[in-house]
């Protein structure tokens, strides 16, 4: 529901968010009260000492205060359990209860201060009693400090401006005044987001690229959240409901007819060849991450294997390779790829906003010059990812619509300049002129690799690109179709990144609004059921629609979302496009090349850790990745080590089934 309005400002917490904090505080307070009562009853005879009367009074008054607080917290928790996310009516008394609860902190602070002063005076009483009272004073201050931290966390810097906007909306204003108010709020929101991002990234420098990235990221966030009044728990509840709704729909769907091809078909042969290429080149994409990924993949032996390279001074072997900031990276690259020092042309781990690390090597097995671009590994890379507005890609091709993701385009342009202007590719092909150029990368590196391959295609017509788990929001539909002949993308399971674009995020927001608005259960039940479902599975048929006669009101488009939207301008309707949809900075963007989708077969538990997984592979259309799927593996499926294990398993299984074609076909579906 919309954030609560207290003290004349909006806060980033709703009136139904206090069930779990209230329960936690209630348990602590009750245990604390029981402990003080026990201390008083068992040792009150020992308070006949100098200052003992003060300590006795302290304990009695503290127990009374705690009893009152326990009653108020119980009332807050009970009221917070009422109603639904979009029906705060049963919780209208919450603000009064919170005012009373906050007022009780003043006597608590005063009494805790007095207790600390009395104990500090050196009361000559039984040591057990004194230690017990010291413990109560410490607990008092811990709870007070935790409350202050909680208030800081839920403080909304825009709350003063949003309070009247959240409660009634400026429907009384004319179109001009409403638009002016919205623009003012957006400007203020952009400034707040930019300040937050600068604080988070305070250690990464202040060059021009960084400042531009700060502004781009702040504008993206402020625009995305400008038309909603959701608190974080609303989003968590919406994601939980969406996951269950999504699984329920999948379980009730009729099995789709899958077109399988005979072992000799060209599509299957092409898929086999590309899977083998992906399996091979994924080693280079992983090597580009350097020693952190290598240690992560080999936690017991990795440090021992490359530790000598970290401590050893630069040898003549290193001088064969151009590059900078190698540190421990070179040893991990050698172990990951299996190549020798002399096979590397250039290794760079220079890392700034819009400037990605990359390696260039000679792959004699595939007779190729491999350029591997690193994926997201630092805050600088995150800023590159989040610079999501579009710009025209400067390439020599017949495509008219050449819009691309600005941050990734800038990063690919940096690598392009290094490869061409520094003569890195010329050096590589002077050694192996008959080799072909292959560009690979994972995640952000996969998107940059696709753009880089497109930039280099005019000079190297035979270039190939393998993009592993690339972002969906990369470039225009025309460039997506143009890249089909020389780029292959590989996606694992429900990986969120190949489904991630500004357009898909906007669709996710709409779906969250709809499912939250149409759920007739209180938020705490949604979150508890969602947590249980994520951990242990179960029945996904959790109610997401209103019951009984209220069902017919859902025929009105997005009716329930009215209380969760803040764009009340007369020019705004609930069926109209959002700010992101209408912005020319964020047009719909698409993934690169043809797409191979790896999917896990069989049910192996919620997190797939119980036994070795088996995978199938198929060619997929980009439309299959037009929605973000919610699930416990939406993040883990993106990890490069998980993708490498899936490829290892799939390629070995397919190789084992070469002699049994009837079984081999089952793992290959062509959409």
UniProtKB/TrEMBL annotation:
Bilayer topology: Multi-pass membrane protein
Catalytic activity: 1,2,3-tri-(5Z,8Z,11Z,14Z-eicosatetraenoyl)-glycerol + H2O = 1,2-di-(5Z,8Z,11Z,14Z-eicosatetraenoyl)-glycerol + (5Z,8Z,11Z,14Z)-eicosatetraenoate + H(+); 1,2,3-(4Z,7Z,10Z,13Z,16Z,19Z-docosahexaenoyl)-glycerol + H2O = 1,2-di-(4Z,7Z,10Z,13Z,16Z,19Z-docosahexaenoyl)-glycerol + (4Z,7Z,10Z,13Z,16Z,19Z)-docosahexaenoate + H(+); a triacylglycerol + H2O = a diacylglycerol + a fatty acid + H(+); a 1,2-diacyl-sn-glycerol + H2O = a 2-acylglycerol + a fatty acid + H(+)
Leader sequence residues: none
EC numbers: 3.1.1.116, 3.1.1.3
InterPro entries with a match to the protein in the record: AB_hydrolase_fold, DAG_Lipase-Related, Fungal_lipase-type
Entry GO terms, CC: cytoplasm; plasma membrane
Start and end residues of each Fungal lipase-type domain: 370-503
Subcellular location: Cell membrane
Top-level enzyme category: hydrolase
Pfam families: Lipase_3 (PF01764)
TM spans (from-to): 20-43, 55-77, 98-120, 132-155
Name this polypeptide is given: Diacylglycerol lipase-beta
Species of provenance: Mandrillus leucophaeus (Drill)
């Amino acid at each position: 529901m919309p954030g609560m309005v207290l003290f004349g400002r909006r806060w980033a917490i709703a009136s139904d968010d206090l069930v779990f904090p209230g329960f936690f505080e209630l348990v602590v307070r009750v245990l604390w009260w029981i402990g003080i009562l026990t201390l008083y009853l068992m040792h009150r005879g020992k308070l006949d000492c100098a200052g003992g009367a003060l300590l006795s009074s302290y304990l009695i008054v503290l127990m009374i205060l705690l009893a009152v607080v326990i009653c108020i917290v119980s009332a807050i928790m009970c009221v917070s359990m009422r109603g639904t996310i979009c029906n705060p009516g049963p919780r209208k008394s919450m603000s009064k209860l919170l005012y009373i609860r906050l007022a009780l902190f003043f006597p608590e602070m005063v009494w805790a201060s007095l207790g600390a002063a009395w104990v500090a005076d050196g009361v000559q009483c039984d040591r057990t009693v004194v230690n017990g009272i010291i413990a109560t004073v410490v607990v008092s201050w811990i709870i007070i400090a935790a409350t202050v931290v909680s208030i800081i966390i839920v403080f909304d810097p825009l709350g003063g401006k949003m309070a009247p906007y959240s409660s009634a909306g400026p429907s009384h204003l004319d179109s001009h005044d409403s638009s002016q108010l919205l623009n003012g709020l957006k400007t203020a929101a952009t400034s707040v987001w930019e300040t937050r991002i600068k604080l988070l990234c305070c250690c990464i420098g202040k060059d021009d690229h960084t400042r531009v990235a700060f502004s781009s990221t702040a504008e993206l966030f402020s625009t995305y959240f400008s038309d909603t009044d959701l608190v974080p728990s609303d989003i968590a509840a919406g994601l939980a409901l969406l996951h269950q709704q999504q699984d329920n729909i999948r379980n009730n769907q009729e099995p789709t007819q899958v077109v399988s091809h005979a072992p000799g078909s060209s599509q299957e042969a092409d898929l086999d060849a590309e899977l083998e290429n992906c399996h091979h080149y994924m080693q280079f994409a992983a090597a580009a991450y350097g020693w952190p990924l290598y240690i992560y993949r080999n936690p017991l032996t990795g440090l021992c294997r490359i530790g000598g390279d970290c401590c050893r001074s630069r040898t003549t072997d290193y001088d064969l390779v151009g590059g900078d900031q190698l540190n421990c990276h070179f040893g991990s690259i050698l172990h990951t790829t299996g190549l020798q020092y002399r096979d590397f042309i250039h290794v760079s781990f220079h890392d700034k906003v819009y400037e990605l690390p990359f390696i260039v090597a000679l792959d004699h097995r595939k007779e190729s010059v491999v350029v591997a671009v690193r994926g997201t590994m630092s805050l600088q890379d995150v800023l590159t990812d989040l610079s999501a507005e579009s710009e025209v890609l400067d390439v020599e091709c017949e495509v008219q619509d050449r819009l691309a993701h600005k941050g990734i385009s800038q990063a690919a342009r940096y690598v392009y300049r290094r490869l061409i202007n520094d003569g890195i590719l010329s050096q590589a092909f002077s050694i192996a002129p008959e080799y072909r150029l292959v560009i690979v990368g994972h995640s952000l590196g996969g998107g940059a690799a696709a753009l880089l391959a497109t930039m280099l295609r005019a000079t190297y017509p035979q270039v190939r690109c393998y993009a592993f788990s690339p972002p969906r929001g990369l470039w225009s539909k025309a460039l997506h179709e143009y890249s089909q002949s020389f780029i292959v993308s590989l996606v694992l399971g429900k990986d969120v990144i190949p489904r991630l674009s500004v357009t898909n995020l906007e669709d996710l927001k709409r779906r969250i609004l709809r499912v939250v608005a149409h759920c007739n259960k209180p938020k705490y039940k949604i979150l508890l059921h969602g947590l249980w479902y994520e951990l242990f599975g179960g029945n996904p048929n959790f109610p997401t629609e209103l019951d009984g006669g209220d069902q017919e009101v859902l025929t009105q488009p997005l009716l329930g979302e009215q209380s969760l939207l803040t764009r009340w301008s007369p020019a705004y309707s609930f069926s109209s496009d959002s700010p992101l949809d209408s912005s020319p900075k964020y047009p719909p963007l698409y993934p690169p090349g043809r797409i191979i989708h790896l999917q896990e077969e069989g049910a192996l538990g919620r997190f797939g850790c119980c036994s070795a997984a088996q995978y199938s592979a198929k060619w997929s259309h980009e439309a299959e990745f037009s929605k973000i799927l919610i699930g416990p593996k939406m993040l883990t499926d993106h990890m490069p080590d998980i993708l490498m294990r899936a490829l290892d398993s799939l390629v070995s299984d397919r190789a084992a089934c070469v002699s049994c074609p009837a079984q081999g076909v089952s793992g290959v579906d062509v959409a």
